[in-house]
Design a protein that fits this description.
With 180 residues, the protein is of the alpha/beta class. The chain has helices spanning 14-26, 41-44, 64-68, 70-75, 100-109, 154-169, and strands at residues 4-8, 31-35, 49-57, 61-62, 82-88, 115-117, 120-121, 139-140, 143-145. It binds flavin mononucleotide.
Length: 180
C-alpha cells in the first residue's frame, strides 16, 4: 500500500492539530505526518500521494516554516503525484487574505506536474478575498479550516473532505468514523 505523506507547517499548533485529525480519519497506517520545519526535498520522493497543510499569517504571508522551505518546494518534481491541499485562516480577522497561503502553495507547485484533488466549496465562509479561490468557480483549491471563527464546523468539514479525498485518491482502505 502506498502511504500518503502529509506535510504541514504550523506556528501555534492549529494546522498540526488538523493534520492529526485528518490522519485519524484516513488511518494511521495510511497517512504519515511530517513537519515541514524538519522536512527535506528528498522525503517528497517517498510519496505519490501528498496532503499539504499551511496556515496564513500577517496579512497574507506564508507560515514561517513553509516560507523557509519555499525554494525547495518550488523544485520538487510533482509529476505522477496526486496532491490535496488544506489551510488554516481567520475569515473575520483577516477577510482580505483568507487562507491566501493555500493559493500560494498551490501556485508554486502546480507547474511541476501534480494532479490536484480536494477542491472545496466556498459556501459557508464569509470573507472578502482569497488567493485560494479558483477564478470563475465558487471553490477553493483545497479545504479551508477556520479554528478562530468556525471551530464548531471543523469536524464536519473534515469528515466531508476526508471522504472526498479518500475517493479521489482511490484509497482501498477504510474511511474511519471519528468523534472529535
Ligand atoms: C497576527 C496574525 C495574523 C494572521 N493573518 C492571517 C491572514 O492574513 N489570513 C488568514 O486567513 N488568517 C490569518 N491569521 C489566522 C491564522 O492563520 C489562524 O489563527 C491559524 O489557525 C493559525 O494556524 P497555525 O497555529 O497552524 O499557524 C492570522 C493570525 C494572527 C494571530
Amino acid at each position: 500500500m502506498s502511504r500518503i505523506g502529509l506535510f504541514y507547517g504550523s506556528d501555534e499548533g492549529n494546522t498540526e492539530s488538523i493534520a492529526f485529525r485528518i490522519q485519524a480519519r484516513l488511518g494511521e497506517d495510511v497517512v504519515e505526518i511530517l513537519d515541514i520545519a524538519d522536512a527535506t526535498q528528498l522525503e517528497f520522493a517517498n510519496f505519490d500521494k501528498l496532503i499539504l497543510g499551511i496556515s496564513t499569517w500577517d496579512f497574507g504571508q506564508l507560515q514561517s516554516d513553509w516560507e523557509d522551505f519555499w525554494q525547495d518546494i518550488a523544485e520538487v518534481d510533482m509529476n505522477g503525484k496526486t496532491v490535496a491541499l488544506f489551510g488554516l485562516g481567520d475569515q473575520f480577522g483577516y477577510g482580505d487574505y483568507f487562507i491566501d497561503s493555500v493559493g500560494m502553495l498551490h501556485d508554486v507547485i502546480v507547474n511541476n506536474g501534480p494532479k490536484i484533488i480536494g477542491h472545496w466549496s466556498t459556501d459557508g465562509y464569509e470573507y472578502e478575498a482569497s488567493k485560494a479561490k479558483i477564478d470563475g468557480e465558487e471553490k477553493f483549491v483545497g479545504l479551508a479550516i477556520d479554528e478562530d471563527q468556525q471551530e464548531h464546523l471543523s469536524a464536519g468539514r473534515l469528515d466531508q473532505w476526508c471522504a472526498q479525498i479518500h475517493a479521489e485518491f482511490g484509497l482501498q482502505t477504510a474511511l474511519l468514523t471519528i468523534d472529535d
